UniProtKB/TrEMBL annotation:
Documented EC number(s): 2.7.13.3
Coiled-coil parts of chain: none
Region (Disordered): 423-442
InterPro entries given in the database record: CheY-like_superfamily (IPR011006), HATPase_C_sf (IPR036890), HATPase_dom (IPR003594), His_kinase_dom (IPR005467), Sig_transdc_His_kin-like_C (IPR004358), Sig_transdc_resp-reg_receiver (IPR001789)
Name of the protein in question: histidine kinase
Keyword Phosphoprotein in annotation: yes
Length: 568
């Protein structure tokens, strides 16, 4: 309840503040606009931040992925709260990080309208001209409001977000950015879409949560950028917004030559000239409510693969024997094929390294019914998500696992090359790392324990940057098993231990580890608790369990680094 109220209040305040910003700017700048045309490069300056050089495609992609992630987390929080009896809300349930693991489970077990959820497709043309002068804050707010509205009013079907470059109709020598946001949601009535949609504090349904300011702010931003916005909506069928704004070219040539999207996301050209096969099922019904989903998956993958990564794209039935470097299938199609085809066809499907595209609930179903040689790609389906999945699916040389972007990419677009490739994990970790037994016994060897996959990945990345060896465990029991196995080769020096975990919590695991150390005469490892529990009773139990340090979440990376003086 507190979380829901806080979220609603923050949403309202943000929109009211933005409304105040754009109206103040209109009042102060109204007379100037009538006297002379304001330069587009100055548009929105002082409203949502300064105009600067940036990639328009990166800003769009960041907002879509960020807003979608926030929406999933909010749904997970709502589902968790709704399904938990009031008396069962323990202190550990208040840890927001715990919701990361709940997201997939919640969407798998229940959805308000359909088990298939909403598919989100994102496509932007791969073009170096996206590197231009733009007010990043204004553009982010514009995309955030339009895409957020689609998520809000679309509980089934799909959402499409595209960004393309078109010639300026008034001056063909100049170019404009065309942003389209289309959804298959509840739509709007004709009267409201014509006369009320951009009015402040106005909603078609006054009982729906919101302030009625989001689209008004979008219209003001578009006007300030000297662009246009059009809306088409049909009640019960969905809504489409089309926004065009002039692209302001750089005043002076950039220090480094701008790169197109494919050069940034695939700098070594691993994907270039590879063959990707789009698999489909011959079944008449593919098992989900949105019959257009599979053609959309194929269309967007084809456009991204060809336009961004210069791949060869072919299509085939799932039963066909077709050779390709990597295969892509829509999740419901994949499951339907597995259910209705013979065992030989299933075995052949499992032998192919296939990227499965779907919602969390669909991917969970794939994991239950079709375990095999697959890489899961959860929506939004866009250039960055696809390249991650393709890198994970391709069998490639070790020296290409972590590609380093060229200097131009690093200088002109910091942080964009966040591919986070997936490394194949050996089944027998101690056997796979026999060389560790010959390392310096004084060197840090860490055991990272957390039942939250994302937290564990963040910790692993952080430790890797410190040049420490580390292993991971997903619960207290797993941590104890790993500790015992590694004690025979290269004992752990430090354990970062989560507390609230299934099977065996952090306190129980720490006590078992201390007991094992005493029984086997081992040098005690330093155990550091990372937890959201803040009570004095929890601290006392940690001390009684043999835990050396107690750190409350969220823990900054700077604080973590301070726990290892040798890393300074």
């Amino acid at each position: 309840m507190v979380q829901a109220c806080s979220s609603t209040l923050l949403y309202t305040l943000n929109h009211v503040l933005d409304y105040s910003k754009v109206n103040d700017a209109q009042v102060s700048g109204g007379s100037r606009r009538r006297d002379s045309e304001i330069s587009t490069s100055k548009a929105s300056q002082n409203i949502f931040g300064q105009t600067s050089e940036d990639y328009l495609c990166r800003l769009t992609q960041d907002v879509v992925e960020g807003v979608h992630f926030g929406h999933i987390m909010q749904e997970a929080a709502h589902n968790k709260t709704s399904s938990t009896p009031l008396g069962d809300h323990a202190e550990s349930h208040l840890d927001p990080a715990m919701l990361l693991d709940e997201a997939v489970d919640s969407s798998s077990s229940s959805h308000s309208h359909t088990s298939d959820g909403v598919a989100v497709f994102l496509f932007m043309e791969s073009h170096e001209a996206w590197f231009s002068m733009i007010c990043a804050g204004a553009w982010k707010r514009l995309v955030m409001n339009l895409f957020g509205n689609s998520l809000k009013f679309c509980s089934a079907g799909h959402i499409e977000v595209t960004l393309k470059m078109i010639p300026d109709p008034k001056n063909p020598q100049k170019r404009m950015a065309h942003l389209m946001v289309l959804d298959t949601g509840i739509g709007m009535g004709e009267e409201f879409s014509k006369h009320g949609i951009f009015q402040p504090f106005v909603q078609e349904n006054s009982l729906v949560n919101g302030t009625g300011l989001g689209l008004h702010i979008v219209k003001r931003i578009v006007d300030d950028m000297q662009g246009t916005i059009q809306v088409q909506s049909t009640l019960g069928s969905g809504t489409r917004f089309d926004v065009t704004i002039p692209i302001v070219e750089l005043g002076t040539p950039p220090s480094e030559t701008p790169l197109d999207g494919g050069q940034i996301l695939d700098p070594p050209g691993i994907l270039r000239n590879r063959t990707i096969c789009l698999l489909s099922s011959i079944q008449e019904s593919n098992g989900h409510a949105d019959s257009r989903r599979t053609p959309l998956v194929h269309s967007y993958v084809k456009n991204i693969a060809e336009g961004w990564y210069h791949m060869n794209v072919i299509e085939a039935d799932m039963s066909a024997d077709v050779k390709a470097d990597v295969y892509v299938a829509e999740a419901s199609d994949f499951v339907m094929h597995a259910r209705t085809n013979d065992q030989f066809s299933k075995i052949k499907s499992q032998q192919r390294r296939t990227v499965i595209v779907g919602t969390p609930s669909q991917l969970a179903q794939v994991g239950r019914e079709c375990p095999g040689n697959v890489v899961e790609l959860s929506y939004p389906l866009g250039p960055r998500a696809l390249v991650r999945a393709l890198y994970a699916a391709l069998d490639r040389p070790d020296d290409l696992v972590f590609p380093t972007p060229p200097a131009a990419a690093a200088n002109t677009l910091p942080g964009y090359m966040d591919l986070d490739p997936i490394e194949p994990q050996p089944k027998d970790l101690p056997a796979a790392k026999q060389e560790a037994s010959h390392t310096d016994p004084t060197q840090q060897h860490l055991l990272l324990v957390d039942d939250n996959a994302i937290n564990l990945k963040l910790l692993s990345t952080f430790v890797k940057k410190l040049n420490f060896n580390a292993e991971t465990a997903i619960d207290g029991q797993d941590a104890l098993t790993k500790y015992k196995n590694w004690s025979k080769k290269h004992t752990f020096t430090t354990i970062l231990m989560d507390i609230s975990m299934p099977k065996m919590n952090g306190f129980e695991s720490s006590r078992a580890i201390r007991e094992f150390e005493v029984q086997n005469g081992l040098q005690p490892a330093k155990i550091i608790a990372l937890t959201a529990l803040s009570s004095e009773a929890s601290r006392r139990e940690a001390e009684a369990s043999g835990i050396d340090d107690f750190q409350m979440k969220p823990v900054s990376l700077k604080t973590l680094k301070g726990l290892f003086p040798e890393a300074a």
